């Protein structure tokens, strides 16, 4: 599953560098990295690769578990892609349309890799019980990206070289509601993933 996450993420990220006519464009590909979806998937792929390599080393050495920091990294990245999945299912899909969210490579980054990450972390990588304080680390990607999004969208604004409000979180100037909602949802996902991991 970790290998599949890495391979599928590479395929998805590579596809962003080609337009509809098949023309290669570095700027097009890099532009897609501003989205939390893609940042979380890249983080998850990196964590999956490190986890897979650590597991191979442990198998060769006869060790029972991988280093704690690696499993924490996998947990944080799993929360991040689960936030992506939940946001699409609860908000972006109904508001912006399901086709726009699940058209290739959206189906990979919005559905397949999040599911693989949750299944692999919660049901096959239970090397350590996850403490409550440790579970709060899962808030960090959403918190950091939220601050960046607010700075680019609300403070700077698209007209001044910032970002377009592509997620619609500042619609009607209600960014405070969006921030609160995203952080609460992320916290609940942290608790759910912790429960499944420790079960």
Topology:
Elements: H1 2-15, H2 26-31, H3 36-61, H4 68-96, H5 98-102, H6 106-124, H7 132-135, H8 140-156, H9 175-198
Helix pairs in contact: 1-3, 1-6, 3-4, 3-6, 4-6, 4-9, 6-9, 8-9
Word description of this protein:
The protein is mainly α and 199 residues long. It is 72% helix and 0% strand. It has nine helices and no strands. Helix 1 packs antiparallel against helix 3 (36-61) and helix 4 (68-96) packs antiparallel against helix 6 (106-124). It is globular, with a radius of gyration of 18 Å. The two termini are 20 Å apart. The mean pLDDT is 93.
Task: Write out key terms for the chains shown.
199 residues; mainly alpha
The helicity comes to: over 70%
Order of helices and strands: HHHHHHHHH
Main sheet makeup? none
Summed up, the helix count is 9
Low-confidence stretches: none
Q: Bin the strand percentage.
A: under 5%
Query: How would you state the average pLDDT, rounded?
Result: 93
Q: What structural category characterises the helix and strand content?
A: mainly alpha
**Strand runs, count:** 0
Query: What is the first-to-last residue Cα distance?
Result: 20 Å
Give a short summary of the structure:
This protein has 199 residues and is an all-alpha fold.
């Amino acid at each position: 599953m970790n290998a599949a996450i890495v391979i599928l993420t590479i395929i998805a990220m590579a596809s962003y560098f080609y337009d509809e006519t098949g023309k290669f464009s570095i700027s097009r590909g890099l532009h897609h990295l501003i989205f939390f979806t893609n940042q979380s998937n890249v983080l998850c792929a990196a964590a999956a690769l490190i986890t897979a390599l650590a597991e191979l080393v442990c198998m060769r050495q006869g060790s029972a578990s991988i280093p704690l920091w690696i499993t924490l990294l996998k947990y944080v990245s799993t929360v991040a892609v689960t936030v992506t999945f939940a946001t699409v299912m609860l908000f972006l899909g109904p508001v912006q349309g399901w086709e726009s969210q699940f058209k290739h490579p959206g189906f990979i980054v919005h559905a397949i890799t999040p599911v693989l990450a949750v299944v692999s972390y919660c049901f096959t990588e239970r090397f350590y019980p996850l403490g409550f304080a440790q579970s709060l680390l899962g808030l960090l990607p959403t918190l950091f990206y939220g601050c960046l999004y607010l700075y680019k969208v609300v403070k700077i604004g698209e007209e001044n070289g910032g970002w377009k409000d592509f997620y619609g979180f500042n619609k009607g100037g209600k960014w405070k509601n969006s921030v609160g909602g995203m952080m609460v949802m992320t916290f609940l996902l942290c608790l759910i993933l912790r429960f499944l991991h420790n079960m």
